[in-house]
């Protein structure tokens, strides 16, 4: 059973503009701000781009960073976009699919690929979301305007497959990755992975991990406390956060993907970095690992990293945003 449409619930001043013209201008400006970089050999759009990782915070925070991932997409020949996002609003022990036929955005509606969604449901590894839970999660919705904008010239031919990813372990990430790998392999299909990176701050997120020295270092990380330990004057918290996030980014970019996946899980167990899309990322790594077994070697490249605030004291907070693309 399907429902007709999911409204743009988060099209508010807090998240992104509900006015189509204003939103279109913002997205256009952010995309136009993405420039080739000689030092990183980045010249978008990227031929054979098969997946991107991009943030999902309010656009005033993460919109510019997300543009770097979306500018990487080569739209030619793409007719299907999978969007994998984490569940923030409720506990989910597996992966879930939408019952809707369309997802609304202020720019226009996106059509869901009901045929593929039914194929996935028949594997008996996915459940269906109730409309209130579908509408209560922002991690997928925040990508919809960008998907619409990037594919606006061929939007009538684009269908999306939104998948909400729950609190699954490495084995489940690999299992779901294997199910999705044949779709990722298709020339007409692109994957969008929704994730912010470190959420740092005692009062906001209860996470205060800190590297006392630049990594790599034999000095282990600690958790800052108001009564100690405290950050060193020469080592601001935002520098530690950057090291922490880049450690994860460097691990994920390693080859083969199966090894990178295992190292990423071990990294999370050690640091507990609050990467909210760690499980959608894990599913992507599982899919890449499955395709490696068929001789397809993936390459992941990070093209942008930002922090919402430069933390220097225990009472500060920030969220990190990172953008990447994946090619075969």
Write a brief structural summary.
With 328 residues, this protein is α/β, with parallel strands linked by helices.
Keywords:
single chain, 328 residues, alpha/beta, 12-stranded mixed beta sheet, two-stranded antiparallel sheet, 14 strands, 34% helix, 22% strand, MEMO1_fam, MEMO1 family
Q: What is the averaged pLDDT score?
A: 96
Structural class: alpha/beta
Helices and strands, in order, run as EHEHEEEEHEHHEHEEHEEHHHEE
Instruction: Count the DSSP helices.
Output: 10
Largest sheet: 12 strands, mixed
Question: Radius of gyration in whole Å, from Cα?
Answer: 19 Å
Organism: Suillus discolor
Family: Belongs to the MEMO1 family.
Pfam families: Memo
Protein name: MEMO1 family
Description of the molecule:
It comes from Suillus discolor. Belongs to the MEMO1 family. InterPro entries: MEMO1_fam (IPR002737). Pfam families: Memo. Helix 8 packs antiparallel against helix 9. A hairpin with a 2-residue loop joins strand 5 and strand 6. The chain has 10 helices and 14 strands. The protein is globular, with a radius of gyration of 19 Å. The longest helix has 16 residues. The mean pLDDT is 96. The two termini are 36 Å apart. With 328 residues, it is an alpha/beta fold.
